[in-house]
């Protein structure tokens, strides 16, 4: 019996051995086969997506290439990872295709899909199956016709970072947002729907950078935004929010729109605008009662009823119209393009700045429906950028200026319902004839005298001059349309005219003589060095040499056409000989310094450029500024640009050793600008055409100045609201989301230059087809598929094929370039790291010594700062996921 039992156990044990092996093999085989099935499922699922879209016949015509191309990875705007049978679908972009019907439910079966974008279509619903794609991190269906309570299923997306469903027909409450993973969400856009609820739902979203909930039916207060330290874009307009505004939170943002709510209470401009990061502030149509500069540091601490925009430096748009603001305006924000203070209770005289221009940068100025008094400032009439000016329905008095008006862009001028007196100057009609002025309203004032000739007629002018009893016109059609009386004619007008002719003939010779004298005086004045520039140099504010205009004229044969070697936005570039040395002279266009702001910008540029000195930066040798033009004198770099050498327009071509040296030197120059200059300078237009080469083919980085100056903020919050810079093909894709240039933008552009050095291909060329139109996309694809040989410049291929070290070097630079052009600014190295890595590559692969150019000493600028890490456009609290808020196919 015992033996029988023992035998049974032995038999059972023997039977378990093959079972165990079968189980073990299944564990090894099943995952691999499961992976293959999953990969195959991705391709099959995309075919299902196509069939679901083609269920609407018109969609088939829109997505024609989806019908003819058998491989979904080659469909327009479909990105896969891997190639062939191992490819998985990662990103789909259906933006602006005018597609109709429901969102294809089979999207939910794409287990590797991370980004889906379908803005500006006619999708009308999101089926439940869609929410099975749990790995999605980026969802964008803005401006469609999607209805229903789709937010209730958001708990499926625990990896979601960006949710953009603005401008649809959604309903329900925003409470469902609390089902998302609050620790990773960075951007939410539900604007233009019918959502209800309040912001308390969003408590805990600490990494949120963009929040757009405008045009809904939300209520409550805004206290929750205090707990969103990374927030920089806030749009809550057209809701029913009430209570006060948490000012200390707004001060760290870039764009704020809280218009058309029920917010109230006094607030202070200095509390909002110091530290100066806000570029756009819209608080219009609320219930604010007072702008009170009562905090420490205010320039008007004793005047509780004044509005002082001194704090709003660097702000582009300020909208405070439609509130109950009272008091007087002390100053205007000089950098703002738009200022709306209309429909308030502001009063007092408009600020008299004493400058040549009243408000230099403004394009739209709305001061209507207030109680402003006093005359219109003289500088008001020389605002070259002004497009719309509305000062109507105030109590302004005084006369209109008789002198010339320089407002070439003005389209609308409304001064109606004031107390203006005197005649209408002929300069008003000059604006309509010679420039863009299309609408003029001077009605209901105390103006008198005849209308000047040349005023256009039509509907825009039918009632432009009524309500001025003293105005008259002898043009019957114009007089009838404007309800004006006929002007009385003096007696014996013809006789008086002939009598005047005799007197005029006597005066002609005298006038000619006077004009000659004035012309000579003006010539002397135009060639005199600007007093402000001389003062700045004498006081040590600008540390460069002043060079008289006559010397620069001599150096260039009076700026002869054959001395011109280039043209740019600043003006023309001439080659000259100054004191026996070749120089490059940049001469501004004649009109660039007619405005005070332009003059100050030039002086700031000279101050910055004269304070930096590096062997791989083009040196500023001197400057000159007169009444008519501004000039910068640089060292002449004889061998042209890197672009000319790469594209065979100059020289005999560059070998890999030379290209690697140029890359190292350029990286050192940019690292110097980012980490040693004080304050840091961002180049903003790094490209091969801005890298000059000397006789030894050493790099000299050109074209940097005040327009690239980074704001002097904490290193983690480098924002910039200056004008857009950059060249297509080199521009950081993040710019199209944040509209901000940072140090990481320079890194991206430098990465493109590295790819140019490897390939000698243009950064942007649509002839290469859509997938390869940008050099970044093309290089990314070829490097990651081990096809680098298809990318390398044919001139380098002989060495590339024969020398393994060269091949390794080029591959290392290519991999560094791809890190520099990473879609995420946070994942790119900074320029200091790039410079160190290229130096290491030069040493390892080519033993490139710096002895040939180290004899040129680097002269540090005054008060150099310690080197520090460079930050991207987000604050340090944003976290590593901040890069996600952008178009999925621009990353």
UniProtKB/TrEMBL annotation:
The keyword Thylakoid does not apply. One of its GO terms (cellular component) is membrane. Residues 871-880 have a biased composition (Polar residues). ATP binds at residue 587. Residues 863-891 are annotated as: Disordered. The chain crosses the membrane at residues 496-519. It is found in: Membrane. It comes from the Eukaryota. Its main location: membrane. GO terms for molecular function: ATP binding; protein serine/threonine kinase activity. Keywords: ATP-binding, Glycoprotein, Kinase, Leucine-rich repeat, Membrane, Nucleotide-binding, Repeat, Serine/threonine-protein kinase, Signal, Transferase, Transmembrane, Transmembrane helix. Residues 559-848 form the Protein kinase domain. Gene3D superfamilies: Phosphorylase Kinase, domain 1, Ribonuclease Inhibitor, Transferase(Phosphotransferase) domain 1. PANTHER family: LEUCINE-RICH REPEAT RECEPTOR PROTEIN KINASE HPCA1, RECEPTOR-LIKE PROTEIN 55. Belongs to the protein kinase superfamily. Ser/Thr protein kinase family. This is Protein kinase domain-containing protein. It comes from Marchantia polymorpha subsp. ruderalis.
């Amino acid at each position: 019996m015992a033996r029988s039992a023992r035998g049974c156990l032995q038999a059972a044990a023997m039977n378990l051995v093959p079972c165990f092996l079968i189980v073990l093999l299944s564990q090894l085989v099943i995952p691999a086969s499961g992976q293959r099935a999953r990969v195959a499922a991705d391709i099959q699922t995309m075919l299902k997506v196509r069939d679901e879209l083609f269920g609407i016949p018109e969609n088939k015509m829109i997505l024609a290439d989806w019908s003819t191309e058998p491989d979904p990875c080659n469909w327009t705007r479909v990105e896969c990872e891997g190639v062939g049978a191992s490819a998985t679908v990662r990103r789909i972009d259906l933006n602006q295709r005018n597609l109709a019907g429901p969102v294809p439910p089979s999207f939910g079966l794409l287990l590797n899909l991370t980004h889906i974008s379908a803005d500006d279509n006619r999708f009308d619903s999101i089926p439940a199956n869609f929410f099975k794609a749990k790995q999605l991190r980026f969802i964008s269906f803005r401006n469609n016709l999607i209805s229903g309570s789709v937010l209730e299923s958001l708990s499926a997306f625990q990896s979601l970072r960006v949710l953009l469903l603005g401008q649809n027909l959604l309903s329900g409450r925003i409470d469902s947002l609390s089902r998302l993973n609050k620790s990773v969400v960075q951007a939410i856009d539900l604007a233009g729907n019918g959502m209800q609820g309040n912001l308390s739902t969003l408590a805990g979203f600490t990494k949120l950078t963009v929040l757009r909930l405008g045009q809904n039916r939300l209520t409550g207060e805004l206290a929750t935004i205090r707990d969103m330290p990374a927030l920089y874009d806030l749009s809550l307009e057209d809701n029913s929010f009430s209570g006060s505004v948490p000012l200390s939170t707004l001060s760290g943002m870039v764009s704020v729109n809280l218009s058309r709510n029920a917010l109230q209470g006094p607030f202070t401009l200095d509390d909002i605008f110091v530290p100066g990061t806000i570029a756009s502030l819209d608080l219009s149509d609320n219930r604010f009662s007072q702008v009170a500069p009562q905090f420490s540091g205010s320039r008007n601490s004793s005047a509780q009823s004044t509005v002082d925009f001194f704090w709003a430096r660097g702000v582009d748009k300020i909208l405070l119209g439609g509130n109950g603001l009272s008091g007087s305006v002390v100053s205007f924000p000089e950098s703002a393009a738009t200022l709306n203070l209309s429909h308030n209770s502001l009063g007092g005289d408009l600020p008299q700045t004493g400058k040549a221009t009243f408000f230099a940068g403004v394009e739209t100025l709305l001061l209507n429906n207030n109680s402003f008094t006093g005359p219109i400032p003289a500088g008001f009439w020389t605002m070259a950028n002004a497009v719309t000016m509305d000062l109507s329905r105030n109590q302004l008095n005084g006369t209109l200026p008789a002198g010339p008006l320089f407002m070439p862009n003005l389209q609308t001028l409304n001064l109606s319902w004031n107390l203006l007196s005197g005649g209408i100057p002929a300069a008003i009609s000059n604006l309509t004839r010679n420039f863009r002025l299309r609408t003029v309203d001077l009605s209901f004032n105390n103006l008198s005298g005849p209308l000047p000739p040349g005023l256009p007629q039509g509907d825009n002018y039918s009632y432009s001059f009524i309500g001025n009893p003293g105005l008259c016109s002898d043009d019957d059609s114009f007089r009838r349309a404007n309800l004006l009386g006929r002007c009385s004619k003096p007696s014996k007008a013809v006789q008086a005219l002939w009598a005047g002719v005799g007197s005029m003939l006597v005066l002609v010779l005298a006038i000619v003589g006077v004009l000659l004298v004035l012309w000579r005086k003006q010539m002397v004045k135009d060639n005199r060095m600007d007093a402000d520039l001389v003062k700045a140099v004498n006081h040590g504010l600008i540390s460069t040499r002043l060079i008289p205009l006559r010397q620069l004229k001599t150096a260039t044969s009076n700026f002869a056409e054959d001395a011109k070697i280039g043209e740019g936005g600043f003006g023309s570039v001439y080659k000259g000989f100054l004191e026996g040395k070749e120089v490059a002279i940049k001469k501004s266009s004649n009109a660039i310094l007619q405005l005070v702001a332009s003059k100050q910008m030039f002086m700031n540029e000279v101050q910055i450029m004269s304070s930096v000195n590096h062997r791989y930066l083009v040196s500023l040798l001197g400057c000159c500024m007169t009444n008519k033009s501004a000039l910068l004198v640089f060292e002449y770099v004889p061998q042209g640009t890197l672009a000319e050498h790469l594209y065979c327009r100059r020289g005999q071509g560059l070998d890999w050793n030379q290209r690697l040296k140029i890359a190292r030197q350029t990286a050192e120059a940019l690292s110097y600008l980012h980490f040693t200059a004080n304050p840091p300078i961002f180049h903003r237009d790094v490209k091969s055409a801005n890298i000059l080469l000397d006789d030894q083919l050493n790099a000299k980085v050109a074209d940097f100045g005040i327009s690239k100056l980074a704001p002097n903020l904490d290193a983690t919050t480098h924002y910039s609201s200056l004008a857009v810079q950059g060249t297509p093909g080199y521009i950081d894709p993040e710019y199209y989301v944040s509209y901000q240039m940072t140090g990481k933008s320079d890194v991206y552009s430098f990465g493109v230059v590295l790819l140019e050095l490897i390939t000698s291909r243009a950064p942007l060329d649509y002839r290469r087809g859509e997938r390869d139109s940008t050099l970044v996309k093309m290089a990314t694809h070829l490097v990651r598929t081990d096809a680098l040989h298809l990318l390398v410049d044919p001139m380098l291929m002989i060495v590339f094929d024969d020398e393994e070290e060269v091949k390794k070097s080029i591959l290392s630079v290519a991999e560094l370039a791809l890190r520099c052009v990473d879609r995420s600014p946070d994942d790119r190295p900074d320029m200091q790291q790039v410079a160190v890595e290229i130096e290491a590559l030069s040493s390892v692969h080519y033993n490139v010594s710096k002895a040939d150019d180290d004899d040129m000493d680097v002269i540090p600028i005054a008060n150099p700062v310690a080197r520090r890490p460079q930050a991207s456009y987000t604050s340090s609290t944003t976290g590593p996921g901040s890069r996600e808020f952008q178009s999925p196919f621009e990353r």
